[in-house]
Amino acid sequence: MPNTQSPYTAFATLLSSNGHPVSPAELHGLLIGRSCAGAGFDADAWLADAAGVLENDPADAVRNALIGLQEMVKAELTGDDVALVLLLPGDEEALTDRAAALGQWCQGFITGFGLNVGGKDLSSDAKEVLQDLVSISQVQDALEESEDGESDYMEVTEYLRVAPLLLFTELNAPAAPAPKPSLH
Fold first, then answer.
1. What is the C-alpha to C-alpha distance for residues 143 and 100, in angstroms, rounded to an integer?
2. Can you quote a single GO CC term (predicted)?
3. How far apart are the C-alpha atoms of 57 and 7, rounded to whole Å?
4. For 110-161, what is each residue's pLDDT tens digit?
């Protein structure tokens, strides 16, 4: 029988079977949040931040999954794509479960971002994105199983696929060289 587990479900099973009380959504949010805050992509630093939510030392399989997740995120954030792939339950799951995971993703993001942003000044756009994430992290109870709930969920996920890139671009931009005089 073919294995039809989604990557989300497979990762959730891996985590829970290793005694980690955390959802893949929260870990993915944590990873994107810290990456957007300028933490870079050092595997040990990522594993150290992840250890905070894992609550016990990850087995090799979990470590490898986390490192693989980071490689994926690094490719997305530094590539030419203009949207992230969010690690969330599939559309076949109940909306309440997907909404809960969405909230966990945002909480993870806020945690990861907060751990790594230091005293950096944020633009008003960046602050707005963070405010939105805080609001979304508290939204899961408001989404109901309905057409409207589904479309709200879709809108929020679309926003989350793009909004963090603004933070990443702002906080990870190489220092701009002084403008050269134009040669016209």
1. 9
2. cytosol
3. 22
4. 999 999 999 899 999 999 999 999 998 887 666 777 788 889 899 999 999 9
